[in-house]
Amino acid sequence: MFKDIQVLGKESLIYGLSTVIARLLNFILMPFYTHYLAPGEYGIIAAVYSYIAFLNIIYHYGMDQAYMRHFEEKEKAFPSSFVCLILSSALFSGALALNPVFFAKISGIGGEYSKFMLYSAAILFLDTLTVIPFADLRMRHKAFYFANVKIMGIVLNVILNVMFIKYMDKGIEGVFLANLASSAVSAAMLSNYFADIKFKIYPDVLKKLLHFALPLLPAGLSSMAIQVIDRPLLLFLADKTSVGIYQANYRLGIFVMLLVVMFDQAWRPFFIERADRTDAKRIFARVFSYFAVILVWIVLALSFFISDIAKFEIRNTPLIHPGYWSGIGIAPVVFVAYLFNGFYINFLAPVIISKRTGFLFVISIAGAAVSVISNLILIPVLNIYGSAISTLLSYVTMASLAYLAGRKLYSIPYEFKRIFKIVVITFVLLTPVLFLELNAGAWSLYRTGVLTIYPFLIFFSGFFDDREKEQIRSLLRIISSAGVRRRI
User: Fold this and answer.
1) What is the 3 state secondary structure string of the chain?
2) Is 67 in contact with 214 (CB distance < 8 Å)?
3) Closest CA to 410 of 272, 236, 291
4) Residue of 31, 205, 209, 471 with fewest CB within 10 Å of its CB?
5) Taking CA 111 as the corner, what is the angle to CA 110 and CA 112, rounded to the nearest 5 degrees?
């Protein structure tokens, strides 16, 4: 079992490094935007890209997941899914490009920004071309190829953003021009898939693909709504400036989001390939325990130090422009929201293994409903904090429902005694900050002490059994000896 988890860890690291590098490069743009774009301008970008993220679900309609689930028929499944996506995305982008002014107005950004709808149509089409090839790379365990394409696209996007906005004074339009160019390059880097493909649809295979994929569409739309619906609602219930401030500080959640994404990239192939093994359920339960104990510590660390990170100065320039600092307080809420998103991804395994993807519809609709309702209630009262809390409530709802569904479909014996120990230890460590007002010196000492004590309390609380403790000690000895050799 431990060997299997090591495989998951290895692939998570490869996918993770690519994702971390790519997202961090992309994250660089957020501080850049805060220094070169006003909050209102950044709010427009946030709103448009929220719609793009939502439309991506419609363009893909779960076909990448269907291809991965039917990978054993890849010779027919690949061309069927790929050609189907090309035809449908051309239709969708054509419809979007026919009346950009109309779509710009109903989106809330205003008809004067209609050209951004044309850019969005092209970006969506190009990105859809890469969906099945990327899924194929994941299933073939070609993580390095996957990583190279992702990283190159993001590097180009960052460079072009700087060039268009800082040196060519393109403003908001430069963001879309850079994205368009990088999407085209990413598609070109996967052109070997396009060159060898037989442009043929196999009706019998396509029927199976669609039978698996289409139930994922409403679920995917609902899931994406949870991630992005807060920006359009803020746009309508507050203003563009609030959206810009919210977007900048929400993006600070990248530090937890990256860990969840890198885990998810490797987790799905991992549990699909092992679903039929006799020890599969025990392995999946142990994965969740390890995932929880590590991510809780990281969430604590980031919550304690995120203000310092946002205000950290490079050449006398803070990472985030002071005009956006009023929203830093939402970051810890976003961290915890991503923590529960990670729990939700863990709990999805039974649903996907059992091929009962219809459950995803109910779960996602519930999460989306919580998101919309709570945003409508909380934004007028708490402004951007209301949106952050709504996101957290949505992920808690989805994780809870996914767990309940999994118990009926493919019951995994999650180690809740271990999870309870994490909860108790975390609550005990946080008690002082919940009830006491600490000065700057005491706050620095407290947060450093909590992060230091947490792993020791976990280790000696009985969270790990004797065999696991010995493996941890062996790993620490290896790390320690490696450090000694480097010093010598």
Assistant:
1) CHHHHHHHHHHHHHHHHHHHHHHHHHHCHHHHHHHHCCHHHHHHHHHHHHHHHHHHHHHHCCHHHHHHHCHHHHHHHHHHHHHHHHHHHHHHHHHHHHCHHHHHHHHCCCHHHCHHHHHHHHHHHHHHHCHHHHHHHHHCCCHHHHHHHHHHHHHHHHHHHHHHHHHCCCCHHHHHHHHHHHHHHHHHHCHHHHHHCCCCCCHHHHHHHHHHHCCHHHHHHHHHHHHHCHHHHHHHHCCHHHHHHHHHHHHHHHHHHHHHHHHHHHHHHHHHHHCCCCCHHHHHHHHHHHHHHHHHHHHHHHHHHHHHHHCCEECCEECCCHHHHHHHHHHHHHHHHHHHHHHHHHHCHHHHHCCCCHHHHHHHHHHHHHHHHHHHHHHHHHCHHHHHHHHHHHHHHHHHHHHHHHHHHCCCCCCHHHHHHHHHHHHHHHHHHHHCCCCHHHHHHHHHHHHHHHHHHHHHCCCCCHHHHHHHHHHHHHHHHHHHHHHC
2) no
3) 272
4) 471
5) 90
C-alpha to C-alpha distance for 430 and 12, rounded to whole angstroms: 30
Within a 13 Å sphere around the CA of 76, how many CA atoms are in the beta-carbon half? 12
Dihedral of CA atoms 142, 145, 147, 150 in degrees, nearest 10, equals -130
- What is this structure's pTM? 0.78
Q: How far apart are CA 278 and CA 275, in angstroms?
A: 8
Q: Are 83 and 76 in contact (CB under 8 A)?
A: no
Q: What is the pLDDT of residues 40-60, one digit of tens each?
A: 899 999 989 989 988 999 998
d(CA 304, CA 298): 10
Backbone φ and ψ of 318, nearest 5°: -65, 150
Write out pLDDT tens, residues 114-163: 899 999 999 999 999 999 888 888 777 777 788 788 888 888 999 999 99
Tokens 């090309």: give the residue. 86
